[in-house]
Amino acid sequence: MSNESMQGDAQIDRVLKIKRCAAVVKGGRRFSFAALVVVGDGRGKAGYGYGKANEVPPSVAKAQKAAGRTMIRVPIVNGTIPHEVSGHYGAAHVLLTPASPGTGIIAGQAVRSVCEALGIQDILTKSFRSNNPTVLIKATFDALSKLRTREDVERLRGVNLS
């Protein structure tokens, strides 16, 4: 196996939420479970997934598989993000701001898990309106997908920004 695939196996998995749903049937209640998972490699790649099953372990496995399919690459500069960015999804609004070295991850549980999975060490975040972890994660990924490095912007615009 190549070195890249060996390193790719070391993934950071965070189970954020497990919900139990009950369906009332003739014999009583039938329970099902839904899991929200964030998966990352700690080097700028992360994804999230949502899985549903009749037991907890299969729902987590389904969520991890779905997270692998939604992976995005995020530019990280000196342990933080290149510039301030905001993301929206539904009622959730998330603001991500770069921080100086030594600040740490200043974030709530949902946004923190995404930052840790990406390998970001210093970042300031603020979430507005909704505190639902599912929509907060989707808003965070919306914000992260908007990030561009200085080199990307120079290449896209065809100008020199220095």
The mean pLDDT is 90
CATH topology-level name of the largest domain = Ribosomal Protein S5, domain 2
Task: Calculate Rg over CA atoms.
Answer: 18 Å
Largest sheet: 4 strands, antiparallel
Q: Total strand count, please?
A: 8
Number of domains: 2
Number of helices, counting only DSSP H or I runs of 4 residues or more? 5
Category from helices, strands and their pairing: alpha+beta
Widest sheet, order of strands: 1-2-3-4
Enumerate the spans where pLDDT stays under 50 for 5 or more consecutive residues: 1-8
Helix content: 25-40%
Oligomer: single chain
The first-to-last residue Cα distance is 42 Å
CA-based shape: elongated
Kindly provide the name of the CATH class of the largest domain.
Answer: Alpha Beta
Please explain how this structure is put together.
The chain starts with a helix and ends in a 5-residue tail after the last helix. The protein is built from five helices and eight strands; from the N terminus they run H-E-E-E-H-E-E-E-E-H-E-H-H. It is elongated. The protein has a four-stranded antiparallel β-sheet with strand order 1-2-3-4. The protein has a four-stranded mixed β-sheet with strand order 5-6-8-7. Strand 2 and strand 3 form a beta hairpin. Helix content is 31%, strand content 36%. Helix 3 (109-118) crosses helix 4 (133-145). It has two domains: 3-72, Double Stranded RNA Binding Domain, CATH 3.30.160.20; 74-155, Ribosomal Protein S5, domain 2.
